[in-house]
Write a structure and sequence with these properties.
By secondary structure, this protein is mainly alpha-helical. About 55% of the residues lie in helices and about 10% in strands.
């Protein structure tokens, strides 16, 4: 089971360029502050700058509208981001993608990973989403905005919003494209559907990097190079309106096995 990328670099470049320019800008603005925040022990100054950029982006991306949760005030978000435990988890997740792999249909970690075991990665990811929900959002119960916050801070993986879930359905990923996707507890099927996705992305990148890098270099956003989680977020968002035959990203799954049971 694996993702594959359409080898039409012009189509991928066009998708990157067609994506909302303001959303591209929001992502790079937050990532700039996040890199500074993650590069040193937490300080009120760096956490405050990140909190302001993060909340601005989340609100631009729909927080507080159409039933989506409101963001907490900047000072409350700053306090949450100043906690050494959440910063360490975010740092580990931000530095983890290059060490994720698939071997013989199983998830594994390469030497040098911030995590000792796959299970430790899973625990960190689910705990972080729940802590981001509590620290940044008011009364949040869905995965969408905590995952958007994780994407903005770490670049690890796409957020399961309606567009990306639609793109995953076009790719051939089952059981994700539904209206509500509640914050999961570890080990439940929904948690596994979150935790395995970065491994599939890392595996795909290991094979498709030349095509993707060429498409990025030809685009208006060459700074996307190396931002693998965000690139998949953009491509899946765009392909929600495509047919499986013209998909930018496709998924092959063994019919007798759940795709997330790896």
């Amino acid at each position: 089971m694996s993702f594959s990328v359409n080898d039409d670099t012009a189509a991928i470049t066009a998708a990157i360029n067609a994506f909302n320019a303001a959303y591209h800008s929001d992502y790079f603005t937050v990532r700039t502050e996040a890199i500074d925040y993650l590069s040193e022990p937490p300080s009120t100054a760096s956490a405050s700058r990140l909190a302001l950029a993060l909340i601005t982006a989340l609100e631009n991306w729909g927080a507080g509208k159409r039933g989506a949760p409101d963001c907490r005030p900047v000072d409350a978000a700053t306090e949450a981001l100043c906690k050494p435990t959440i910063r360490q988890k975010l740092t580990n997740l931000a530095n983890s993608l290059e060490f994720l792999s698939l071997a013989d249909g199983k998830r594994s970690l390469k030497v040098g990973s911030p995590f000792e075991t796959v299970e430790e990665f899973d625990t960190c990811l689910i705990e972080t989403l729940n802590e981001l929900a509590a620290g940044l959002l008011v009364g949040n119960t869905n995965v969408t905005y905590p995952m958007k916050a994780l994407l903005l801070i770490t670049g690890l993986m796409p957020a399961y919003d309606s567009q990306v879930k639609g793109g995953l359905a076009v790719a051939g990923v089952s059981g994700v494209n539904r209206t509500r996707y509640l914050l999961p507890v570890e080990e439940c099927p929904d948690a596994k559907k979150i935790c395995v996705l970065p491994f599939y992305i890392a595996d795909c990148i290991s094979r498709a990097a030349p095509v993707l890098n060429r498409a990025i270099e030809n685009s208006n956003y060459p700074m996307l190079k190396g931002q693998h989680g965000r690139l998949f977020d953009v491509l899946l968002f765009v392909q929600r309106n495509l047919t499986p035959e013209s998909a930018l990203i496709s998924f092959s799954a063994a019919q007798a096995r759940r795709w997330y049971a790896i």
